[in-house]
Design brief:
2 copies of one chain form a homodimer. Chain A is about 35% helix and about 25% strand. Chain A is an alpha+beta fold and about 210 residues long. In chain A, helix 2 crosses helix 3, helix 3 packs antiparallel against helix 4 and helix 5 crosses helix 6. Chain A starts with a helix and ends in a 17-residue tail after the last strand. The first copy, chain A, contains 6 helices and 11 strands. Chains A and B meet through strand 5, helix 3 and helix 4 of A and strand 5, helix 3 and helix 4 of B. The structure holds a DNA duplex (30 and 30 nucleotides).
Chain lengths: ~210, ~210
DNA sequence: CGAAACGTTGACCGTTTTCAATTACAGTGG
DNA sequence: CCACTGTAATTGAAAACGGTCAACGTTTCG
C-alpha cells in the first residue's frame, strides 16, 4: 500500500509497457506463460481462477495503485485470469528484466522481500479487522489502523463508498456505523478528518468480537 | 501456509531458540528492539498494536505452523505486542543470522521473496472469500480454493470447528451452510471428502456477492 | 468405558443487507 | 452565475441471515 513505488524503482522505463484495457478485456489468461507483473494505474482488475470443471473463484481485485500477479515472478505460467472490471490502465513490468535485477542486486531483492513482508502484515491486519462482527466496532478498528497521532486522527481522502467494500460492509452500513459512533462520542468528525475519542467504559458488555474458538 | 519450512532451512539450529509461553504471556512488546521472528509450533499467539492514546487493535493471530512478525526483519523495533492466547510453543529465528544469510545468499533471499509473494497471494484470496456475504456461497468459494481435480474435491483434514473462524463464521453457521449446499446438490460429502458439483442454474437469481460498487 | 471434542439441529434475536427515496455537493456548460 | 447532472452522503423500513444459546447425538482416544 505504501511500498509500491519500489517496483517502479527496480525497472527503469525500458521494461515498462503501458496498456489500456476496456471493461471486460483480458490482461492475461490462466495458463499463459508468466511474462510480467502489473501495476494498476487506474481502474480495477479482477483475478479469477478457473477450476477444471469450469467453475471459478475470485482471487483478488486490484485497484489503482496496487500491483498484481507478483507471484507470477516465480512461476512458469499465470494461475488465473486477469480481467478489467472497469476501463483500466496498467503498467507491465516484464519478468525477465525484473528477475535479472533481483539476481544481481542484493539490495534490490531484499527490498522486494521487505515490500512483500509489509504487504503480508497489511493483509493480515485487514483480515483481522474482518473478524470483528459489528459494523461500528469494525469501523473503529479500521480507523485505528489508519490513524496517527494523539489523539488518533484519520484523514479520509476518498469516498466512504469506496472504503465500505474494503471493510466488508455496504456503504449504508458504514454510514450508520459512523453516526452510531458519533452519537456515542467514540469519534468526532470535522470535514474529512475523523478523530478517535478515548475508549469509553463498555456500554455494551465486554468483547463481542471474533468467532469464539 | 505451504511455504513455511523455508525459514527453518535458512537457519541451522544455532539461531534457533525455543520457548514456551503460558497463556497471556508476552513474547515481545511493542517498542522492543526487533531481535527475531517466530514460528508458532503450538498454540496461538496474538499480535496487538497499541496506539498512542492507549487503545489497541488486533493485527493478527498466528496459529501453529504459522510464522509471525516477519516484517520485524526489516524494522528496528517491534511495532506490536505478541501475547500467547493459549499455552504456546514458539521457535525464535534470530534476526542477525537470518539477515546475514539473506545478505550473502542470493538464492536464499529470492526464496524468501517467493515465500512472501505466495503468502500475499494466499491472503488476498482469503480476503476475497470474505467479501462473499452468504455463508453457503462463501463456503463454496473456500472449497473451490482448496479443491483439486475434476470434479473438484477437497479432503477435509481438520475439524470444521477450526475451519469456521478462517471463514469468518461460527461453526454452527458452517454446519448449516454444509447442509444447505448438500440439500441443494451443490456438494456431496463422503467421509472427510467434499466433492463440488457443477454449478447449477441460478436457483436464487444471479450473483449476490461482494458489496456492490 | 467414559470424558472430551466434534458434529448437528432448533429457536430466537440482533444486525446487516436490501430496496428505496431524499438531500448535499461538485463540476460543467450555457 | 446558475441550472443541470452525476456521485456521495443520509436515512427509513422490511426482510434475510448469521450469531448466540441450548440441547443432543456421535466419534475419538486414553
Amino acid at each position: 500500500m505504501e511500498t509500491l513505488q519500489s517496483w517502479a524503482d527496480l525497472i527503469p522505463d525500458e521494461g515498462l509497457r503501458r496498456r489500456s484495457l476496456a471493461k471486460g478485456e483480458l490482461l492475461f489468461r490462466q495458463g499463459d506463460p508468466a511474462a510480467a507483473i502489473y501495476l494498476v494505474e487506474s481502474g480495477r482488475v479482477r483475478l479469477v481462477r478457473h477450476l477444471e470443471d469450469g467453475s471459478s473463484v475470485a482471487l483478488h481485485t486490484a485497484r489503482a495503485g496496487e500491483t498484481l500477479a507478483e507471484a507470477a515472478l516465480f512461476a512458469e505460467a499465470y494461475h488465473c485470469d486477469a480481467v478489467a472490471e472497469t476501463p483500466s490502465g496498467v503498467a507491465a513490468l516484464a519478468k525477465g528484466p525484473l528477475l535479472r535485477v533481483l539476481a544481481n542486486d542484493q539490495a534490490a531483492s531484499l527490498r522486494v522481500a521487505r515490500m512483500f513482508a509489509g504487504q503480508v502484515r497489511d493483509l493480515r491486519a485487514r483480515l483481522e479487522v474482518r473478524n470483528i462482527r459489528t459494523a461500528p466496532e469494525r469501523l473503529v478498528a479500521w480507523l485505528r489502523l489508519e490513524a496517527t497521532g494523539n489523539p488518533p486522527r484519520v484523514e479520509i481522502d476518498r469516498p466512504w463508498i469506496e472504503i465500505a467494500p474494503e471493510l466488508g460492509l455496504t456503504h449504508e452500513a458504514v454510514y450508520r456505523a459512523i453516526s452510531t459512533l458519533e452519537r456515542d462520542g467514540a469519534i468526532v468528525r470535522a470535514g474529512r478528518t475523523v478523530t478517535l475519542a478515548k475508549a469509553r467504559a463498555a456500554p455494551l458488555g465486554p468483547e463481542r468480537n471474533s468467532p469464539r474458538t
